[in-house]
């Protein structure tokens, strides 16, 4: 099995909250439900998730209805400190 790039959920300063690997044969959106469910189970106090446009559509509605977890797509912009997560993972 080939592994695709991992799902990484971080807090607003770049600290890892959830990391999940999926098979390369799957779609990126397919793993979205699993990673959000893991986030909700591990950290029930999280009240908002920011995501890029690839997560728009059914995943946003599912998270709202099934997990009571709002996923905000609008207003997302790349921050200059985005490299923090990649650097953290590269050092391990």
Shape summary: globular
Output the helix-strand order: EEHEHEH
Radius of gyration: 13 Å
Report how far apart the termini are.
22 Å
Describe the protein in words.
The structure is a single chain. This protein has 92 residues and is α+β, with helices and mostly antiparallel strands. It has one domain (7-90). Helix content is 36%, strand content 14%. The chain has helices at residues 28-42, 58-67, 83-90; strands at 7-10, 16-20, 49-50, 71-72. A two-stranded antiparallel ribbon has the order 1-2. Helix 1 packs parallel to helix 2. It is globular, with a radius of gyration of 13 Å. The model has no long low-confidence stretch (mean pLDDT 80).
What are the SSEs and their pairings?
Blueprint (H helix, E strand, L loop, with lengths): L6 E4 L5 E5 L7 H15 L6 E2 L7 H10 L3 E2 L10 H8 L2
Parallel strand pairs: 3-4
Antiparallel strand pairs: 1-2
Helix pairs in contact: 1-2
Brief overview:
This protein is α+β, with helices and mostly antiparallel strands and 92 residues long. It is built from three helices and four strands, in the order E-E-H-E-H-E-H.
List keywords for this structure.
92 residues, globular
């Amino acid at each position: 099995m080939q592994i695709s790039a991992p799902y990484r959920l971080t807090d607003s300063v770049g600290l890892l909250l959830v990391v999940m690997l999926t098979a390369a044969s799957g779609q990126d959106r397919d793993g979205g439900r699993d990673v959000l469910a893991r986030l909700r189970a591990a950290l029930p106090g999280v009240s908002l998730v920011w995501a890029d446009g690839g997560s728009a559509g059914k995943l946003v509605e599912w998270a709202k209805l099934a997990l009571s977890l709002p996923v905000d797509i609008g207003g997302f912009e790349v921050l200059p400190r985005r490299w923090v997560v990649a650097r953290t993972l590269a050092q391990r």
